[in-house]
Amino acid sequence: MKRITAWRRRPWAGYAVVLAALAAIGVIYAGFSPQTDRAEAQGTAQAAEDLKHGQELFNKNCASCHGLNAEGTKDAEGNAIAPSLIGVGAASVDFQVSTGRMPASNPGAQIPRKPPIPAFNTSIKTDFEEKEKREAAEKQKAQAEKNLADLRAYISSLGGGPEVPPASAVDPSKGDAALGGKLFRTNCAQCHNFTGQGGALTGGKYAPALSGDDVTPTQMYEAMLTGPQAMPVFNDTTLRPEDKQAIIAYLVQTREEPNPGGNGLGRIGPVSEGLVAWVVGVGLMIMAAMWITAKKPKKLKKS
Amino acid sequence: MSDDNKETAGSTGPREDDGRRERVIGTPSPAREKALLAEDNISAPAGVGEQLDEASAKRAERVVASFFLLAFLASVVFIAYFIGWSGRDGGMHGVWDAREVNFWLGGTMALAFLSMAIGVTIWVRRLMTSKPIVQERHELAADEETRAAFNRDFLEGAEDSGITKRPLLRRTLLLAAAPLGLAPLVLLRDLGPLPEKKLRHTFWGDAVKRAQAEGKRGVRLVVDGTNKPLKVSDFATPGSMITVLPEGMEEHLPEDQVLTQVAKAVTILINVPSGEFKPAKGRGNWHVNGIVAYSKVCTHVGCPAALYEQTTHHILCPCHQSTFDATDAAKVVFGPAARPLPQLPLSVEDGYIIATSDYHEPVGPSFWERG
């Protein structure tokens, strides 16, 4: 007791008691609230696992061209084979993989759109009649969505970059189609044509058509945000999210317009389409008239 | 058509018998007749010949009649559809119904006309004889007597009109015709003095002057369409491109002038990665870390040249494929354009990208006296 009393009177004793009390509170609190911490730890572990899964997918599908650390690769002459993916962001990954452009089958002037590889194909058919088939398809779809999300997370973890836009930002029904039309005509139409029918670029490259239903609003947004291949970038501070939504509204509304006169010619307009109808149609009629009035060539008469 | 046609359709010997007609590859066709027409003295086109075979004519008659019946049915369906379906509830059912209506109305009408045409064609080819009929043509020139009569009548008419007797009429008529002859010469004016200096300036010049009068260094660049002024930090992503205009066009110009001026002032702003950018001589401070502005009006014939490939840094004109190098003062690398795209001098003020003067050369295609 004596010794304790002596300790108590030391000048630093007060500080030591406060420190000890704080430590005790901390330990007790930790003991009383184990769940949150464990959940957090679990969440971190899950995230780490997802990242690891993403990295595995990357190593399997992308690393052969983009390098094991996504640093990009060059050929012997120093020309880039594949760009670095550090800092390209989740939006770029989502665009390239969900449109099937990546993984590319072979490098060329243009990496074309194609159905995504099965591991990332989130738009597979699931409305089967048979329960077994349907469940299998749904499971495959969920797995593909998880694969894509993990790959996005992995690439994001390498250096940030633009995120995938939320569904509300790409809803075509909320955009101002008139403004979108104006912005599209001034900034996009020279490559993609007035109504998004696509067009040629230099050296075998081309601007793809945006008129097919498979080009989703999210993909349009991501393309503007990240500038895939030869396309310039339109970041969110140049064309604000509402401007992008307007452009999406314009594209979706124009492509949903029906063609009252039958099959269209890329919506080049009624006058031009009429001209084609006249020239081709009347041309065919003239040929029919020539056929009707033609005499039989001599060569055929011998039989 | 059928076999009996071929039997009756003329009978000159096979071609191979005739030495002159053998074709040597690479030489002009030895055929004497034009591709479509046989010789005049050959009687038959793919027809029945001079005599009609009553049995096969009977068959053809039935075929033709059934085509006419089909035409009749199609027309009846057309009328029934028109009255009964597309015209129900007063018509006007919107564009989707218009598609369906166009299909059925067009289809039935086409079927009606087509089967009638096929019927008539078979009628002509299978039920009518095809003997040559000669129609003589008379000489085209009129005979002496007619020509003399015309001359007489013409002189008599001229005498009667008094054009020689009444000089006032003659002279006023000539006076009336003279300005029309001069008109083409007057049109030449538009090639020279009329445009004055308008083609040498754009609204960038006016806007910069106005901004400088307010104590600023230059005019801000705004996005065409949204009128959002651009900061350097807004446009910092390499590979960006956007169409810009000088700030305040709509406020400072009369409404009917806005589009005309936009057409001249329209500019593309490009963020070239600064490592790849090569500033031209004397233009070292015209860009902001690789952010560079060029006229969007092609120097060939004035199309909007804004097809920018961020991988090659080429600006393409979609009309005639003139290609300009964005990294190198928009020099022409391909195509019919003769001059680079004019460059707009840029700078920074309060974080915003500004233009510090008008284009230093006329924008757009060459013109008379451009120099």
Report on the structure:
The complex is a heterodimer of chains A (303) and B (371). Chain A is mainly alpha-helical and 303 residues long. Helix content of chain A is 54%, strand content 3%. Among the domains of chain A are: 40-71 and 81-164, Cytochrome Bc1 Complex, Chain D, domain 2, CATH 1.10.760; 165-260, Orthogonal Bundle (Cytochrome Bc1 Complex, Chain D, domain 2), CATH 1.10.760.10. Chain A has eleven helices and four strands. In chain A, the strands form two sheets. Chain A has a two-stranded antiparallel sheet with strand order 1-2. In chain A, strands 3-4 form a two-stranded antiparallel sheet. In chain A, helix 5 packs antiparallel against helix 6 (131-159) and helix 9 (217-226) packs across helix 10. Chain B is α+β, with helices and mostly antiparallel strands and 371 residues long. Chain B has two domains: 3-127, no CATH class; 199-355, Rieske [2Fe-2S] iron-sulphur domain (Rieske Iron-sulfur Protein, 3-layer Sandwich), CATH 2.102.10.10. Helix content of chain B is 37%, strand content 12%. Chain B is built from eight helices and eleven strands. In chain B, helix 2 (54-86) runs antiparallel to helix 3. The model of chain B is unreliable at 1-20 (pLDDT under 50). Classes of the chains: A mainly alpha (303), B alpha+beta (371). At the A-B interface, helix 7 and helix 11 of A face helix 3, strand 2 and strand 5 of B.
Task: Give a short account of the largest sheet of chain A.
Answer: 2 strands, antiparallel
Q: Tell me the greatest interface.
A: A-B, 43 and 60 residues
CATH level 3 topology of the largest domain in chain B: Rieske Iron-sulfur Protein
**First and last CA, distance of chain B:** 70 Å
Major sheet details of chain B = 7 strands, antiparallel
- Percent helix of chain A: 40-55%
Radius of gyration over C-alpha positions of chain A, nearest whole angstrom:
31 Å
Secondary structure class of chain B reads alpha+beta
CATH architecture of the largest domain in chain B: 3-layer Sandwich
